[in-house]
Design brief:
198 residues; alpha+beta; 434 Repressor (Amino-terminal Domain); Umud Fragment, subunit A; seven-stranded antiparallel beta sheet; 7 strands; 25% helix
Protein backbone atom coordinates (compact mmCIF):
# COMPACT_ATOMS: atom_id res chain seq x y z
CA UNK A 1 0.00 0.00 0.00
CA UNK A 2 1.22 3.48 -0.70
CA UNK A 3 1.73 5.97 2.07
CA UNK A 4 -1.47 7.75 1.04
CA UNK A 5 -3.65 4.63 0.83
CA UNK A 6 -4.12 3.25 4.36
CA UNK A 7 -4.82 -0.43 4.83
CA UNK A 8 -8.62 -1.03 5.08
CA UNK A 9 -8.06 -2.82 8.41
CA UNK A 10 -6.18 0.22 9.74
CA UNK A 11 -9.03 2.45 8.56
CA UNK A 12 -11.59 0.34 10.43
CA UNK A 13 -9.48 0.36 13.58
CA UNK A 14 -9.06 4.14 13.27
CA UNK A 15 -12.82 4.56 12.81
CA UNK A 16 -13.38 2.46 15.94
CA UNK A 17 -10.97 4.69 17.87
CA UNK A 18 -12.86 7.76 16.61
CA UNK A 19 -16.19 6.20 17.68
CA UNK A 20 -14.84 5.56 21.19
CA UNK A 21 -13.60 9.15 21.42
CA UNK A 22 -16.94 10.58 20.28
CA UNK A 23 -18.79 8.33 22.75
CA UNK A 24 -16.74 9.92 25.52
CA UNK A 25 -17.57 13.43 24.31
CA UNK A 26 -13.96 14.35 23.59
CA UNK A 27 -12.48 16.28 20.69
CA UNK A 28 -9.31 15.04 18.99
CA UNK A 29 -7.43 17.85 20.73
CA UNK A 30 -8.72 16.82 24.17
CA UNK A 31 -7.91 13.14 23.59
CA UNK A 32 -4.45 13.97 22.24
CA UNK A 33 -3.71 16.31 25.13
CA UNK A 34 -4.23 13.43 27.55
CA UNK A 35 -1.21 11.77 25.90
CA UNK A 36 0.83 14.89 25.23
CA UNK A 37 0.17 14.84 21.49
CA UNK A 38 -1.52 17.27 19.11
CA UNK A 39 -4.98 16.88 17.63
CA UNK A 40 -3.26 16.20 14.29
CA UNK A 41 -1.28 13.36 15.84
CA UNK A 42 -4.44 11.84 17.27
CA UNK A 43 -6.21 12.37 13.94
CA UNK A 44 -3.54 10.37 12.12
CA UNK A 45 -4.35 7.37 14.33
CA UNK A 46 -8.07 7.77 13.59
CA UNK A 47 -7.34 8.03 9.85
CA UNK A 48 -5.34 4.78 9.96
CA UNK A 49 -2.23 6.64 8.78
CA UNK A 50 0.02 6.39 11.81
CA UNK A 51 2.23 3.33 12.29
CA UNK A 52 1.75 1.24 15.38
CA UNK A 53 -2.04 1.32 15.56
CA UNK A 54 -2.12 -2.49 15.77
CA UNK A 55 0.54 -2.68 18.51
CA UNK A 56 -0.97 -3.69 21.87
CA UNK A 57 1.07 -1.11 23.82
CA UNK A 58 -0.10 1.70 21.50
CA UNK A 59 -3.71 0.53 21.77
CA UNK A 60 -3.42 0.48 25.59
CA UNK A 61 -2.12 4.08 25.61
CA UNK A 62 -4.76 5.37 23.19
CA UNK A 63 -7.69 3.65 24.87
CA UNK A 64 -6.49 4.61 28.37
CA UNK A 65 -6.67 8.26 27.27
CA UNK A 66 -10.37 7.60 26.58
CA UNK A 67 -10.98 5.81 29.90
CA UNK A 68 -11.46 2.65 27.86
CA UNK A 69 -9.57 -0.58 27.14
CA UNK A 70 -8.24 -2.38 24.04
CA UNK A 71 -11.22 -4.70 24.45
CA UNK A 72 -13.57 -1.71 24.10
CA UNK A 73 -11.69 -0.79 20.91
CA UNK A 74 -12.12 -4.32 19.55
CA UNK A 75 -15.85 -4.23 20.34
CA UNK A 76 -16.19 -0.84 18.64
CA UNK A 77 -14.40 -2.24 15.59
CA UNK A 78 -16.75 -5.23 15.52
CA UNK A 79 -19.70 -2.84 15.72
CA UNK A 80 -18.60 -1.16 12.48
CA UNK A 81 -19.39 -4.31 10.49
CA UNK A 82 -17.36 -5.85 7.69
CA UNK A 83 -14.87 -3.69 5.82
CA UNK A 84 -16.07 -2.47 2.42
CA UNK A 85 -15.26 -4.84 -0.45
CA UNK A 86 -13.06 -2.79 -2.73
CA UNK A 87 -12.91 -5.49 -5.40
CA UNK A 88 -16.63 -5.87 -6.11
CA UNK A 89 -17.03 -4.13 -9.46
CA UNK A 90 -20.64 -5.20 -9.93
CA UNK A 91 -21.81 -4.19 -6.46
CA UNK A 92 -24.04 -1.10 -6.37
CA UNK A 93 -22.36 2.02 -5.08
CA UNK A 94 -23.46 2.85 -1.54
CA UNK A 95 -25.31 6.09 -1.04
CA UNK A 96 -26.96 8.02 1.76
CA UNK A 97 -26.81 6.29 5.13
CA UNK A 98 -25.43 3.10 3.57
CA UNK A 99 -22.17 4.76 2.59
CA UNK A 100 -19.17 3.78 4.71
CA UNK A 101 -16.70 6.39 5.80
CA UNK A 102 -16.60 9.38 8.03
CA UNK A 103 -19.95 11.13 7.68
CA UNK A 104 -19.34 14.26 9.71
CA UNK A 105 -22.26 16.19 8.21
CA UNK A 106 -24.97 13.70 9.11
CA UNK A 107 -25.12 12.34 12.65
CA UNK A 108 -26.10 8.71 13.11
CA UNK A 109 -29.85 8.18 13.68
CA UNK A 110 -29.21 7.63 17.39
CA UNK A 111 -27.45 10.98 17.75
CA UNK A 112 -29.13 14.38 17.83
CA UNK A 113 -27.66 17.85 17.39
CA UNK A 114 -28.29 21.06 19.30
CA UNK A 115 -26.74 24.50 18.85
CA UNK A 116 -25.77 26.31 22.05
CA UNK A 117 -27.31 29.78 22.14
CA UNK A 118 -25.46 31.43 25.05
CA UNK A 119 -22.03 31.55 26.70
CA UNK A 120 -23.01 30.00 30.04
CA UNK A 121 -20.78 26.97 29.31
CA UNK A 122 -17.70 28.96 28.20
CA UNK A 123 -14.92 27.97 27.88
CA UNK A 124 -16.21 24.38 27.55
CA UNK A 125 -18.52 25.48 24.74
CA UNK A 126 -19.56 28.94 23.59
CA UNK A 127 -22.57 30.35 21.79
CA UNK A 128 -22.85 28.90 18.28
CA UNK A 129 -21.13 25.59 19.07
CA UNK A 130 -23.14 22.54 18.00
CA UNK A 131 -23.19 19.55 20.33
CA UNK A 132 -24.14 16.02 19.37
CA UNK A 133 -25.85 14.00 22.08
CA UNK A 134 -27.11 10.45 22.40
CA UNK A 135 -30.64 10.38 23.88
CA UNK A 136 -30.85 8.31 27.03
CA UNK A 137 -27.10 7.71 27.39
CA UNK A 138 -26.19 8.74 30.93
CA UNK A 139 -23.24 11.18 31.17
CA UNK A 140 -20.06 10.65 33.19
CA UNK A 141 -18.91 13.19 35.76
CA UNK A 142 -17.52 16.27 33.99
CA UNK A 143 -19.15 15.34 30.65
CA UNK A 144 -21.61 17.60 28.86
CA UNK A 145 -25.26 16.64 29.01
CA UNK A 146 -28.54 17.72 27.49
CA UNK A 147 -31.61 17.82 29.73
CA UNK A 148 -35.04 17.68 28.17
CA UNK A 149 -37.34 19.10 30.82
CA UNK A 150 -40.97 18.19 31.56
CA UNK A 151 -42.01 21.74 30.55
CA UNK A 152 -40.49 21.24 27.05
CA UNK A 153 -37.39 23.36 27.58
CA UNK A 154 -33.91 22.02 26.84
CA UNK A 155 -30.78 22.76 28.89
CA UNK A 156 -27.13 22.02 28.10
CA UNK A 157 -24.98 21.63 31.20
CA UNK A 158 -21.91 19.82 32.57
CA UNK A 159 -22.81 16.79 34.66
CA UNK A 160 -21.35 16.83 38.19
CA UNK A 161 -23.30 14.00 39.81
CA UNK A 162 -26.72 12.88 41.00
CA UNK A 163 -28.54 11.45 43.95
CA UNK A 164 -31.99 9.92 44.34
CA UNK A 165 -33.72 13.30 44.30
CA UNK A 166 -31.70 15.61 42.03
CA UNK A 167 -29.08 16.10 39.34
CA UNK A 168 -26.08 18.27 40.16
CA UNK A 169 -24.88 20.29 37.17
CA UNK A 170 -22.61 23.17 36.22
CA UNK A 171 -23.00 25.79 33.54
CA UNK A 172 -25.97 27.92 34.53
CA UNK A 173 -23.85 31.04 34.61
CA UNK A 174 -20.59 29.75 36.08
CA UNK A 175 -18.79 26.44 35.59
CA UNK A 176 -17.66 26.35 39.21
CA UNK A 177 -21.19 26.86 40.60
CA UNK A 178 -23.37 23.78 41.06
CA UNK A 179 -27.01 23.89 39.95
CA UNK A 180 -29.41 21.37 41.47
CA UNK A 181 -32.27 20.18 39.25
CA UNK A 182 -34.97 17.91 40.74
CA UNK A 183 -35.24 14.62 38.86
CA UNK A 184 -39.03 14.98 38.72
CA UNK A 185 -38.60 18.03 36.46
CA UNK A 186 -36.51 16.16 33.86
CA UNK A 187 -37.99 14.07 31.07
CA UNK A 188 -34.69 12.81 29.61
CA UNK A 189 -30.97 13.15 30.38
CA UNK A 190 -28.54 12.56 27.49
CA UNK A 191 -24.74 12.56 27.24
CA UNK A 192 -22.99 14.92 24.85
CA UNK A 193 -20.81 12.70 22.64
CA UNK A 194 -19.22 15.35 20.39
CA UNK A 195 -18.68 19.08 20.09
CA UNK A 196 -18.57 20.57 16.62
CA UNK A 197 -16.51 23.70 17.13
CA UNK A 198 -16.72 25.03 13.63
Amino acid sequence: MSRFQPDPDALRLGEALAALRRDRGLSQAEAGARLGMTSQGWGLYEAGRRPGLFRPDVQRRLTAALDASPEDLALAREGLGAPPDSGAADAPAPDGLEARGRGFDTPSPRVRRLQISDDSLAPWAESGVVVEYRPGQWPRQGQGCVLEMIDGSVRVRLYRGADAEALHLAGAGALDAVETVPRRQTALVSAVVARLDG
